[in-house]
Amino acid sequence: MKKLLYILPEYRSDAHTHFSYIPDFLARLAPSLSITLLVERGELPAINGVRSDYSSLLSVISARLSGCRTAYVHYSFKGAFLSALIFRLTGGKVFYWNCGESWKYGRSFFRGAFERLVYMLVSHVVTGSAGLAQQYATHYGIPRSKVLVMPNWIDVRGTRGKANREEKRRALGVGADTKIVVFAHRLSERKGAQYLPDIAAHLPEDAVLLVIGDGPLRKSVEEKTLSVRPAARFLGWQAHDVVLSYMSAADVFIMPSDEEGFPHVLLEAFVFGVPFVATDVGAVKEIVPEDALRFVVPSGDTER
Q: Going by C-beta distance under 8 Å and a sequence separation of 6 or more, which residues neighbour residue 97?
């Protein structure tokens, strides 16, 4: 049986990110692969058929000495660098997943140089769409043939199983005729949190805005938003299952990001059939159905 080393930067049982999908994904691969999962921070998930340990130079070397020839690193530059040093120098392969538009934001000289070195060292960069693949090749000066495309995915049946629309609306004290608008992201400039006060001001008077997430802009954004819409609710970080239950109760999902990759949260809105308004960043236009492209707006547009 072929062996695979999989490196994840973080895992927690109450994770609010798409990392919560990874254990089930690996469990589905386990019957056909011998998988070692290394986690850099947090908890070690218990996955049938998968060996889990904390990531370190020694654990990466141990995986290679055990006969593993392929490493797949999810988002971690550190993990990609260590794997490239050990695997590439000994005839193995390293696939590094990254999906975003980090080139839109400043990097220190040393950080930028390190990232470019990692992209050069790994066997292949893996990202979510053809458009993003071309941008990675362009911005990091690597051959387009070195960048592979693997679209993001979610467990449709498992996600739908978290739906409890009426129960969640009752818990929120929201009537059947009241519209719920949901924002579920990090409260940062990259994710467009600075636009929330203006968006709140343009919503119908009786709409309820639920803001799920936390981040560096929370205090200022919460104060400004509540000044124009006192009924807005800032819920902080929530476990992924809880986020899905709020999504199932929503009437509209908004994603005003200035930077994205291939957003899982938009896929989750699709699964629940929740109408959305999202900005034209990352791979958004590549994953939105053609008949819904009118709901994809320019970054910074807070009136639609």
A: 72, 73, 74, 75, 126, 127, 150
- Give Cα 213 distance to the centre of its chain: 13
Residue 176 corresponds to which tokens in the numbers above? 């059947």
Distance CA 127, CA 125 (A): 7
Decide if pLDDT at 84 tops 90.
yes
Judged on CB neighbours under 10 Å (0-12, 13-18, 19+), 201 is: middle
Confirm if 77 and 114 have CB atoms less than 8 A apart.
yes
In tens, the pLDDT along 22-70 reads: 999 999 999 999 999 999 999 999 999 999 999 999 999 999 999 999 9
DSSP E strands, the chain? 3-11, 34-42, 50-54, 70-74, 93-97, 124-127, 147-149, 180-184, 208-212, 233-236, 252-255, 276-279, 296-297
Mean pLDDT of the region 100-121: 90
